[in-house]
Fold Gamma-aminobutyric acid type B receptor subunit 1.
Amino acid sequence: SALLVSPAALLSCSAHTHIHTHTAPRSALLAFLYIGALFPMSGGWPGGQACLPSAQMALDLVNNRSDILPDYELELIHYDSMCDPGEATKLLYDLLYTEPIKIVLMPGCSSVSTLVAEAARMWNLIVFSYGSSSPALSNRQRFPTFFRTHPSATLHNPTRVRLFQKWNWSKIATIQQTTEVFTSTLDDLEQRVKEAQIEISVRQSFLTDPAVAVKNLKRQDARIIVGLFYETEARKVFCEVYKEKLFGKKYVWFLIGWYADNWFKIKDPAINCTVEQMTEAVEGHVTTEIVMLNPETVRGASNLTSQEFIAQLMSRLGGKNPEETGGFQEAPLAYDAVWALALALNKTVAPLRAKGRRLEDFNYNNKDITAEIYRALNTSSFEGVSGHVVFDAQGSRMAWTLIEQLQGGSYKKIGYYDSSKGNLSWYGNDKYIQNSQPYLNNITAVGCVLALAAVFPLGIDGHHVHRSQFPVVCQFRLWLLGLGFSLAYGSMFTKIWWVHTVFTKKDEKKEKRKHLDPWKLYATVGGLLAIDVLSLMIWQIIDPLHVTVEVSFITKLKSCLITKLLRKCGVVFGYKGLLLLLGIFLAYETKSISTEKINDHRAVGMAIYNVAVLCLITAPVTMILSSQQDASFAFASLAIVFSVYITLVVLFVPKMRRLITRGEWQSEQQDTLKTGSSTNNNDEEKSRQLERENRELQKIIQEKEERVTELRSQLAERQALRSRRHQSSQNQNQNHSAPSPPSSQAEPPSYSPGTEQHSLPPSFSNSSNLYQGEGKLSRNHCHNSRLPLLYK
C-alpha cells in the first residue's frame, strides 16, 4: 500500500542514501539521467554478480560516446534484491520515494520483475529487464511498459517438444518449483505437448522440499523428466535424485540452462550430498538455453565483438572463475539492455525537442516522455554482443535456443533450434566419434589405402617395367600388402581384443580395467606392425624376391619368385591365419557387449568377419592359380578391393549418417537399448533394487509390529488399572450407599461410564479391529480414555 502514494508527493521527498555508479562527466553542462536497478547478488539466481559489472561496462562506453546522448550522462543506482519479491518491495519504495527521479527501472529475476512491472505503470515508468524469463511477463494488459532482453521461458518449450518428437518419446514427466515463472512455463508446455500428442504422465511440484516429489517420480516410473526450478532448488532436487537412484541411462532430465556451469559442485548447507554424488546424479542431463552470446565475430552498436566483450568482462571481474560467478551467461543480456536503453533514449531526443520537451523534464506524472521512450524501444533493432536485438509486440526478445548436455562433468553443445523456422541443427557430434577411437579409425583407413595401392603393382608385368626394375615392383607388392594388412586389420583386432579383455573378466578385474588408456591401443597396433616390418626386413635381406621368366608358345610372362615357397608362405599364412581366426572368435564373443569406450565394436566385428573370410579363401586360391597370371591377378585384386570397401562402408558410413541426420546422444541411447547385455544389466539392477526395497519394507514391518506389541501391552496395563480402580470405587459405593438394585436392573457387562455421552469417531471404529487379537477388544469394549493412546 505504501507504493500507491501519489507520484506528485515524490517532489517533496527528502534525499536518501543510495548506491550509484559514477563516471566522469564529459562536460559541466551535461544533464543526468538516472536508472534504478535491482541486481540480485544472492538468492535463487545470483545473476547480479556478473550482470552488474556488465551493465557498468556498457554505461562507461555509452557515456564516452559523443554520438549517443551527447548532452546527457547516464547514472546507475542499484540495490541487491536477493531475487526476493519481499525484499524488492522495500527497495522499490526506496527507489521511487528517494531523489533523484529515475527515468527507467531495471529489475533482474522474474519474481522481482513481476512486482516492479505491475507497479511501474502507476508512475509512468518503463521497466527493462535483463534476466526475466517468466512467460507471465508477456502480457501487455498487465505489464504495459515492460521490455526484456532475456527471451521468455516459453521459448524453451518448442525446443523441448521438438526433441521429444525427434527421439520418439510419447510420455514425459514434470517436476516444478511452485513459483509463477515455472507454473506459467509448465502451462505453456502442457498445451504444446498436447498439440504434439505427447502425454504428461506424471506431474509433481514442491515449494521448498522436493523429497516427496522425487519419490513420487520414482514410484510412478518416470523416465523422461522436465525439471523447472531455480539453481538452489536444483541442488536439493538432485540430492534426492541421487538417494532415489533416479539417474543413469534409463533416465533423461531436461533442465534450464541458465544455472552456473558448476552449480552442482557448489557446497550447499541445505543438502547432505557430496560433490561426487551430485556429479554422478546430474551426469547426462540435457539443458535448453537461449543463445546469449553472439557466435559470430560481428562488431555491433558498442563496437565490440562478443569475444572482446568476454575478455573485458573477465578483466573487470578480476580473474574470478566464471563458473562460480552467478549470471555470467546472462551478462551479455545486461550489457545489451543498457545499450538498448541508451539507443532508445537517444532516439527520443529529436521528437521531444520538436514538442518543446527534454528528457530531463521527466517526472512520474509525465506520460508523453514515457510514450516516446516506449515507441523507441518498440522499434529497436541493432546488433549486440548477445546477437541481434529486436522485441516482439509483447516486449520480449526472440532468439535461438542452444541445446547442451552434461558430459564428463562439463557442458557440451549438441545442437541449436530456431523456433521461428522450426530448424533443428546438430552441433559437433564429437562425443560419438571420440568414443569410437578416431585415431584407430584413421589407422584402419590408412591400411585400407595401402592395401588398395597394392593392386597396381600386382597388375604390372614386363610390358610396363624393365626387367632390372621388376624386383622393386615385387618388393612393393609385398610391403604394401603386409603393411596394409597390419594397419587395417591390426587396428580392428586391437579394438575387439580390448573389449573382450575387459568385459569377459571377473567383476573385480573388470572394474580395474574399465579405464581405457589410448596409448595401450596404439601400442598394440604398433606391436603388430613391428612384427610385420621386422619379418619383411629379414625376408628382404636374407632371401629377396627374384624375377622368373616363363615362356609359352603364345606369351612370355615375368613373375616374382619366392624360394622355399611352402616354408615361407606357411609361416606367414600361419601367423596371419591365427590372427584372423582369433579375430573371428573375439568378434563372436563380444557381439552382445555394450560399451561407451569403443562404441563401434560391433561394426568392427562385422568387418573382421568380412576380411577373415575373404583372406582365408583368397590365399590358397591364388597359390593354386599362380601359373595363370590373369586369373590370379583378377582373383587377388577383386578380393582386396571388396574387403577394403566393405570394411570402409561398415566402419564409416554409419558414422557419416549419424553425423548428418541424427544426434550423437540419441544414437548412443538407442544403441544401449538395443543390446542384450544392456537389457540384462537393467534386469539385474531392477532385481537388486527390488531386493533393497524388500529389505527396507521388512524392516519397517518389524518396527511396526514392535510398536503394535508395545501398544497392546500398554492397553492391557491401562485396562487392568482401570479395572482395579473401577472395582475399588464399587466397593466404596457399596459401603457408603444404598443397596444395589435388583439383578434385572443391573448394568450390562460391556457398559462403562461415559460411553453414552461421547461416541467414537468412525475412523477409530474401523481401525480398532487391529487390536482384537489380544484381550478380545472391540468397539464396545474400548474405553474413551484409551483413545488418546491409540491415536498417538
Residues 676-736 form the longest helix (61 residues). Confidence is low (pLDDT under 50) at residues 1-25, 508-513, 662-682, 737-792.
